[in-house]
Amino acid sequence: MDMEELLSIGDMAKINHITVNTLRLYDKWGLLKPAYINHETNYRYYDIKQNARLDLIAYMKELGMNLKEIKELLDKEDLNLIEAILIKKKAAIDQEIAERVRQRDAIKRTIYSLERYRKSPTPGTLTTEFIDERSIYKAYVSKNFYDYGLDAYEMILKEFKNNLIHENLPEVYYCNVGTFLSKENFLHQHFETHTSFIFVNEHFPLKEKVEKLESGMYACIYLDDFMDEKEYAKRLLDYCEKNHYEIIGDYICEVLIELTFFNQNNRSMYLRLQVPIAFKKTLDPHQ
């Protein structure tokens, strides 16, 4: 063998932007053996043509394969096995991406909630607002939210969470659980509901169970105490009647943000009660 045509282990590592220890590890694993070993000095030498093998190993590592998987593939020289492992790797990466996207969405949602809370009106403020279309996931709960105090409310929330778990939904979606009240019940101030919901986005897994809340005008009132909801719902109804608003849909109790960051003993929330409205048309007597 012409030694002048061989590269020392240091030169081979340098031109491939890897370390000498990496080449020794590849030798140990049987991934890339030196072209020649001087048994007197134990120096390792490589053929420049072995760069192709190093490039392949680097490429397979970039695909997410570990050395054990690479060794298995290179030893068996089976294209079907290579394809099967790559398909498995792709599925794992897709799953990881989906999880990271959900985490990113949750972080964005929390940042948005904090910003909205800082800019929200003080409790008791009544407003008429345009609200964009929203997507929701609804679930049935066995107990009526309004028949119980905070302790039972927490158990009801756990029932909702169990619904999510049963659907194999990530816990990151368990956030700011709101409630519905039918239009008829709201008009009669009859507080009975077994429907809870969360807002979701386009990455929510169960797309077939997502419902849309149409954009439109809403009469709203803000509050910071769950126990005051009935009183504030009555104020909201009075506000609609005073302004001659036509209530055209169900009442929603939306949790804008949970402020449990600062209270470890109970759940603190900032709420927006809302009903979709239309403006009643009145005839002009002068027309």
TrEMBL record:
Gene3D superfamilies, alphabetized: 1.10.1660.10, Regulatory factor, effector binding domain
Q: Which UniProt keywords apply?
A: DNA-binding, Repressor, Transcription, Transcription regulation
Superkingdom, according to UniProt? Bacteria
Recall the GO molecular function terms of this protein's record: DNA binding; DNA-binding transcription factor activity
Say if the entry is tagged with keyword Amino-acid biosynthesis.
Answer: no
All copies of domain HTH merR-type, residue ranges: 6-76
Q: What is this protein called?
A: DNA-binding transcriptional regulator, MerR family
Provide the species name: Sharpea azabuensis
